[in-house]
Design a protein that fits this description.
The protein is α+β, with helices and mostly antiparallel strands. The protein has helices at about 5-15, 100-105, 165-180, 185-190, 190-240, 245-260, and strands at about 20, 35-45, 55-60, 70-75, 80-85, 85-90, 95-100, 110, 115, 120, 125-130, 135-140, 145-150.
Length: about 260
């Protein structure tokens, strides 16, 4: 199946096919690659882990590119992206959607991007997961997907796809986001993580108990030594007080104490 080239893409778009509301240059010419078109992020949906609420950010046609909202993906977080453009495929054209190479370089995984049947009309919804260890900013209006168009051989019974409106796509994304994980990587390993944490906490608790026991024994022995020393001192004083010292001995003791 031949792939449509730049000339074919521009011609098809200008005829109202392939891409609806494409990005154009200052002369009104669609901005296409030699054999593809870069789809932009139009709507971003995600579920907050703390509140479990669905959050949404939309591209604003009235604002400049640098004024568009930015959604920050935490490590492991998943979001749903609806493209800013709609596809409008005739019965003789199919399409394939890929994530752009820069997403892979930034450790961003795109799910469910793939083949689009002939006759499809509507936006594309794709999930993104941040596989890196740092936060990743997603700018609305940023080109993140690439679509390639193929011709389909004549004579096939292609049928007809119903048009999927942007509102229907948004409703489907809302429902899917509500059922999806806020952080699929964390939830995937939540069981093993909990087990390891429980084992670690148990080990720390046992170690602390042992240390506290040793410390208690040390303090207890010191107390015993103090009691013994005091008892010995009392016994010695009692013994000394009972000895019948002579006057001469007491005189010598006083003389020694005075000399010290």
């Amino acid at each position: 199946m031949p792939i449509l080239n730049k000339r074919d893409l521009i011609e098809g778009i200008n005829q109202g096919r392939l891409i609806v509301h494409p990005l154009r240059d200052e002369n009104g010419i669609p901005l296409v690659e030699p054999a593809s078109y870069d789809l932009r992020a139009g709507i971003v949906l995600w579920k907050e882990a703390e509140s479990q609420l669905i959050e949404q950010r939309d591209f604003d046609e009235q604002k400049d590119p640098w004024q568009q909202p930015v959604v920050t993906l935490r490590p492991g977080q998943m979001v749903f992206v609806i493209t800013l453009e709609d596809l409008k495929l005739p019965p003789t054209i199919s399409a394939t959607v890929y994530s752009r190479n820069n997403l892979q370089k930034e450790n961003i995984l795109a799910l469910n991007a793939g083949h689009i049947d002939p006759g499809y009309e509507g936006p594309i919804m794709i999930r993104l997961i941040n596989l890196s260890s740092v936060a990743w900013p997603l700018h609305l209006g940023r080109a993140i997907f690439t679509v390639v168009f193929h011709t389909v051989r004549d004579g096939d019974d292609l049928g007809r796809h119903a048009r999927r409106t942007r509102s229907e796509t948004l409703d489907a994304a809302m429902k899917t986001a509500a059922e999806a994980f806020s952080n699929p990587l964390h939830d995937l390993y939540k069981g093993p993580i909990k087990t390891q944490l429980d084992e670690y906490y148990a080990e720390v608790e046992n170690r602390l108990r042992t240390e506290f026991s040793k410390d208690f024994l040390r303090k207890d022995k010191v107390g015993e030594l103090v009691v013994i020393a005091v008892a010995a001192l009392v016994a010695l004083l009692a013994l000394v007080s009972r000895i019948p010292w002579s006057t001469t001995v007491w005189s010598w003791c006083k003389w020694i104490l005075n000399k010290i």
